[in-house]
Amino acid sequence: MNSSIENTCPGPKKSWNRALLQGLPIFMWMLLLILVPLAIMFVTSFFVKEGVQVVHRLTLRNYLEFFTNPIYLPIFFRTIFLALSVSLTALLLAYPLAFFISRKVTRFRSQLYMMVIVPLWISYLVRIVAWRTILGRVGVLNSLLLALGLIREPLPFLIYSPFAVYLTLIHIALPFVFISVFSSLEKIPSNLLDATSDLGANSFQTFRHVILPLSMPGVVSGFTLAFVIALGDYIIPQQLGGLNGLMFGNLIVSQFGYAFNWPLGAALGFIMFAVAVAILFFSQKLGSSEGFLE
Amino acid sequence: MTFKTLVCFVVLGILLFGVVGIALGQGVLNILCFQGYTEDVWVKEFERQTGIKVNATYAGTVEEMFTKAAAGGGLYDLVSIDCGSVERYYKHGLLQPIDLSLVPNWSKLSKKFQEIDFTMFEGKPYHAPFVWGSNNIVYNKGAVGELPPTWAVLWDPKYKGQISITDEANNNVVVAAIALGFPDPYNLTPEQMMKVREKLLEIKRNLRTLTVGFDSEKSVLGSGETNLTLSGYDSGLLLYCRDELGMDVSRLTPKEGIYVWVDGWVILRDAKNVEAAHKWIDFMLSDFAQQELAKFMGFGAATPAAKEVLDPMVVELCYYDDIDRVPVPVFLMKNPEDFEARVNLWNEIKATP
Q: Which residues of chain B have a CB within 8 Å of the CB of A261?
């Protein structure tokens, strides 16, 4: 945005001033709503709670707690594993769908696109309650399977289990992955595809060597979005995860909301934040290495 | 000066006068409470009787309430808190004692509430109860028959996979401690805490799931996901299952004792309108207010005046008309020895596969 302003304004000094002025609101917004809260949380994570008071004395105790208390690491790795499986599954489901809608469909294309996006209009909590109705003991799915004679007893693992968390998170993440992949597939110019067929490539070769590499940025950003959504969620595990659905987000919530140990909560939050940033950084590198078409 | 500016000045003057007038006025009572405690029906009646205007501010959580009350500045005269939190408020120097000579209706309180000693400091009362409730098992009698009156049913392998408890650390520690027969479930020794830990690890094997709030309790019991549900709102759950779903439900009154919370009013130290605060406390114990409150919430009444308006089933099974009728030991909620340790214990239990 700034570069375009510089180009249109005569004289280097004046344009710099204007760019600064126009950039200021955005900078202030970033500063006040993102950087300052993050800094406060980071500093708090080095404080310590004594009794009911947060003492402003710097210590690594909260971070040590994460590594030494046996409950944190296993739940942490379980959460990362679940977030990876969710984002991978969402990608495997969204890619063919996006490919189909963007490349193969000519009629009702935008309607199909909207159908995938529509769940985003429905409140997140309502969707959780809906899954409760689908997966429950007397829910839609169990009733259907019973009626078809495929099972004799309702399947108990459908709800209040890690499976329910996995399934619901995929449902939440899917539209985001779809949008990213779809828009990167849309950007591939059709003359490139014409060229591959002129050069004698079959459709699999075209996909393997042209379409897939060129859609990588969308794949990576979709995957990253899904990963971050799944990593931080704590409402779905709480509502549908039952006894063994506990995730890292729930542990953070319990420190803030129940134990009132904000420093420990902040430290746990920051560890998760660091993982998300690392993934983001890593995936950005991966996405850009294949080259963009702009 | 044009006509417009003149109008502006007049309007500003009126506004300023009004604001100062309200701030100085003795006829305003500022209340900080949970939603549901200042409904129009009884607030209007109080305003009619006393000419005092009521301003209510709602807090969403116990912690938000404490933060607002502790911020001071005389913004609030009265706060509604549970009996277990009184000590914390008192220790932070936030409270002033209640003058019982200004509360004639105090004598109407059920005996058990008049005798609460842990909300008294230096012989003076600081907490005026007006509503109570308890955490109990609501069960599907149609499915499991009449249950024996003991907490042990939660550990009975017969009901494996048919039970839910709340996802609240302190609640569960208290329930396990009462089930184990410990004399003070709010003040456990490290050895007792180890026993509670084992007991909670053991209950996990019997559970179908954990519940988060009333909606999730309704969902599990109502859909047959569970047959025994530990509920924070037993009367509401009973009536929902009976009236909306036509289920045959009942509530357990375990012989080991029940766990009871009591919400009451405290007067803040820097309250601006202490006299009006006493009038409100007295009014909330009047038969009218107790009946309206019981009608609205269906929780326990602090005086025996609400029996007629409560559902007969709630009176019979929950004793919400009069706590003195509860036939088993009553453990009134207190501040536990170490709340954080209880949260961490519960996290550990949940994390154990």
A: 340
